[in-house]
Write the C-alpha cells for this entry.
Amino acid sequence: MSLANAEFESGINPADVDGESISFKFLPKALTERSRQLVETYHGLHGYSNLADVLWHAETRDFISLHRDLAPVFRKASIARSAKRANQGFVLIAATLLSLEVLANDFAGWGRRFPWARRKADALIRDHLPNSRTWLIDFYLYRWRWHPDRVLLETISPPPDPTAPHAVTVAHALGSPAHAGTLSE
C-alpha cells in the first residue's frame, strides 16, 4: 500500500492532514531524553527485535507516515543494514511518541509542569491517535505487570522542580497510595 495515495485503516487520509504543520519542538527536552532512556532501558532488557512491531500499530503507523520528519526516519530505519542504525531510528520515533503520550495524559506530573505543551500534545493525540492515547505508556510500563516497574517509572519521572514544595512520588504518579516512595531523590 502506497503512503502517497492510500487511505489508511484508521481513516486518516494523508491528503487531509498537512505533515508539514506537525512540529514536536514544543516537547520538553528533559521529557524526550527521559523517554529515550526508558525506551532504551526497556529494549536493553527485553531486546530490540519487537521495536519496529510496536511502532507498526495501526494508528501509530498512520501518524508516523503523515509527519515529514518521522516518515523518513522510519523508512531509513526499516531498510538499514545496520541493526544499530535501525534501532536508533526506531528509538527516536518511539521516544517522541511516548513523550506525546506522557504529556497529553499528564503522566507523572509532566502535563502540570508544562501545561502549554500538554495542550498541544493532547490536541495531536486527540486528532491523530484517538484510540491509542496510551499505547506506548501501556506497552513500556504496564505490559508485563499490573503495576509499572519502579526502575522504568523512575526513568520517565520528571526531574525535581526547584520551585515545587515537594517531590513527585510514585504514589502520585500511579494515583495509588499503596506505591509510596520518592521518585526524585
